[in-house]
Amino acid sequence: MNKLNRWPFSRKTNLFYVMLILFLLLIPFFVRNPYILHVLIMLFFYAYLGGAWNILGGYTGQSSFCSAAFFGVGAYTSTLLYIHWGLSPWIGMWLGGVVAVVIGTFIGFLSFRYGIRGIYFVLITLCFGEIVYLIVLNWNIFGGASGILIPLRGNSFSHFQFTSKVPYYYIILSLMLLTAFFTYKLERSRFGDFFIAIREDEDAAEVLGINTTHYKLISMAISCFCMALGGTFYAQYMLYIQQDITLSGTLSIEITFCAIAGGLGTIWGPLIGSSVLTIFSEISRVTLGRYRGMHLMVYGVFVVLIMLYMPQGLLPGLKGAYKKLRGERGKQRDVVSGM
Amino acid sequence: MITPSFIIQIFIGGILMGGIYSFIALGLTLIFGVMKVINFAHGALLMLGMYTSYWLLTIFGIDPYLSVLVTIPLFFVIGWLIQRFLIESVLDAPHLIQIVITLGLALFLENIALFLWSPDYRSVQVSYQEATILLGDISISFTRLMSFILAISGTCALYLFLKWTNVGKAIRATADDKEGAILMGINYKQVYYIAFGIGAACVGMAGSFITPVFFVDPYIGGVFVLMAFVVVIMGGIGNFLGALICGLIVGVAESFGAIFMPGSMKRVLPFTLLIIIMLFKPTGLFGRRT
Amino acid sequence: MEKGASREMSFLVCENITKSFGGLTAVSKVSFQIERGGIVGLIGPNGAGKTTLFSLINGFYSLDQGSVLFLDEPIHQLKPNKICKKGIGRTFQITKPFSNLTILQNVRMGAYNATHKMAIAEENALEVIHFVDLGEKKDQLAKNLTIEDRKRLELARALATKPKLLLLDEVMAGLNPTEIEVVALLIREINKKGVTIFLIEHVMKAIMPLSDKIIVLHHGEKIAEGTPLEISKNPKVIEAYLGEEYQFA
């Protein structure tokens, strides 16, 4: 690579992505079945959240397990502002993002300033997520055990509600693509370099003059902000929020699974991970759903198998298998500019 | 009415619960201390231990406290198998992969329970279920006291095992210095199998003797495992005495927290406590310096 | 310390540096100065506290007592990244490369210390890579390198930060005599470019001819300081290195 910011893809790859995005954009024109649209929405939903997690977890190497907390912050902020003050969820969404950033930066600052790393960071975020869940569960303003129903307004853009699934489809697709594009730009920027250096070896990064705390906080802020937006989207799509759904540890884990299973530190990993896991999950839910718990059992087994046999994730794993099939010895590709 | 006996009652209740937390944490800290693996499936194993005792009682009429004779060997084998087939291949992988594997396992186990036994709460009914012991003003639930006694006995037994038996010494050696242990001729893989087996056996046993105390449903493990983590980190990873003492501290903290905080909020206290401790002394209250 | 107006700015001044871990004193009341421009060696038997001293200067550990002044500015309270910005670079005894990145990417990370622009960082990185003779391997992943190349990468990365003072921690460990010669030459070249070098080494044959001055640590204390010749004749130093063997003799 002579120049760093030159579009490094061959024309073939360019074309592939354009076709892919075009395809995704056109799907609602020939798919009318609301159930399939729902599955796709969920697929992009998890891909979006997984992509947000990827920035902090995959690129910066800080595995947070409280994604649901920030997701919930977004959902509850926009919802409460809407119900009690009539504020449009479109605006509430951004405010939710801000609140999430503030809280995330707080917990991040505490952790990073005190040198919490690796497994300890995982545990602190777990505890934090649990605390947020308990607070919301026990505070009536959040609806308690019965949750909060968002008043039905039918088809109304300003109220962020639509009777058809199609607008939701485009919104979440846009969010996902924007995140992918952001990640792409990040990879090629100084910030991305710093994030990756921190992931690879934090002490070495420090000693080279990189203010690791500063960049970890930035990474965290970006991730939290995106999670919160996702929370608002979810609230407006489902029109019902309750802490067992929006703040559960399971949600955090599912988001993380998508990113990890797809491939940490890659642009399209979360989409691939989410595609496989969501579709797999849906199929098993449909076929095995009458057997309580069966599909989650299968989900668990599936995730474990991926970790045992393709620990870098599906994207790198499949790329490796593809290369082997083609007999290439595989050029030394940059991990940074790869996908 | 805040009388001295009220305070003592709360305190004792906390200690009794704390002993249970300690014992559950013990298995976790053993696994973490030896293999450096965080076993997120620990809670699920606890839950399975509880179900095992429940069914042994319901079908065969075996008293839960006696059922430990079954759960200990059964879960030892389960632990052995988990280490052999799941953990062994990812011992050197990034922590995240190990976490995902144990989480996946937890998900699997929880849902096997859900599938087999439905999400309904179940509780055992034994003849001494409601028995209490009276000490002046203070009443102590018999079942909780028994759990506590068994927990402490188990802790002591484990401690002596690690201290005096050859296997125990091998485990400690491998935990301290794997390379050195290999040089001394210790088969570290076997040690790992045994360690995980013991860790699982402990938590399975814990499940047995808390069956008379708690309802059992497929998700009961979740709460306990987080508490166990709090105890493990607080006490210092791999530190037995630390786990024991901090288990008691967490139990008491939760017990007093219940006075001031509604319902499940009392659990906020141990988590907050843990966060504070992790910030200022991540090696735990009793942990060795990193 | 003089306070005259005509006094030149001091370079690195360490005074009474003390650090304990738990009950163990790793470094005890160590004081010394390093002048700009030279090569200073730090030697001592294993466990003498040499790497700890580096980590104290570098900001990884905080001092229990004492002070570190760099260019007349106290730096002992600063974090490692700030200290790097002030002009002190450091390599690690056990190399810490960014394993999944290429040599070029690794060195580029260091180059960011002197510039914000990615393109300029890359250019500077290439320059340094060619200087240490890793040019042909610039696109190899760090995790696939030999130990010699890893050491060189570590050096290059630290060099890319454009340091005024470079702390090298056993940069020759694990190398064969030929490789050691090459590294020694490289260190001289770096020094000629104006970078002051402070290095820890066990390979006496290499560090003695290289250094203008040698500081000797033993059990955390400074037991000697002087020219290589003086040090090699210093009875305390000889005893420190041979002491235990003598007892068995």
Can you give a write-up of this model?
The complex is a heterotrimer of chains A (339), B (290) and C (249). With 339 residues, chain A is mainly α. Chain A contains 14 helices and two strands. Chain A has a two-stranded antiparallel ribbon. The longest helix of chain A is centred in the middle third of the chain and has 27 residues, at 212-238. Chain A starts with 10 loop residues before the first helix and ends in a 13-residue tail after the last helix. The mean pLDDT of chain B is 85. In chain B, a hairpin with a 2-residue loop joins β1 and β2 (138-141). With 290 residues, chain B is an all-alpha fold. Chain B has one domain. The termini of chain B are far apart. A two-stranded antiparallel ribbon of chain B has the order 1-2. With 249 residues, chain C is of the alpha/beta class. Chain C folds into two domains: 8-87 and 165-173 and 181-249, Rossmann fold (3-Layer(aba) Sandwich), CATH 3.40.50; 88-162, no CATH class. Chain C is 39% helix and 24% strand. Chain C has helices at 50-58, 80-86, 103-111, 118-131, 147-160, 177-192, 204-210, 228-233, 235-248; strands at 12-21, 24-34, 39-43, 65-70, 73-74, 88-90, 165-169, 196-200, 213-218, 221-226. In chain C, a hairpin with a 2-residue loop joins β1 and β2 (24-34). In chain C, α3 crosses α4 and α4 (118-131) crosses α5. Chain C is globular, with a radius of gyration of 18 Å. Mean pLDDT of chain C is 88; it is low at 244-249. The interface between A and B is large, with 42 and 46 residues.
| Cα separation of the termini of chain C | 45 Å
Q: Most extensive interface, residues per chain? A: A-B, 42 and 46 residues
Indicate the radius of gyration of chain A in whole angstroms. 20 Å
Overall geometry of chain A: globular
Q: Strand sequence of the main sheet of chain C, in spatial order?
A: 6-7-8-3-9-10
Distance between the termini of chain A: 16 Å
Count up the domains of chain A. Answer: 1
Shape of chain C: globular
* Class from helix and strand fractions of chain A: mainly alpha
Q: Biggest sheet of chain A: strands side by side, in what order?
A: 1-2
Number of strands of chain C: 10
Q: Roughly how much helix do the residues of chain C carry, as a percent range?
A: 25-40%
What fraction of residues of chain C sit in β-strands? 15-25%
Estimated share of beta-strand residues of chain A:
under 5%
Count of helix runs of chain C:
9
Mean pLDDT of chain C: 88
CA radius of gyration of chain C is 18 Å
In this structure, how is the largest beta sheet of chain A organized?
2 strands, antiparallel
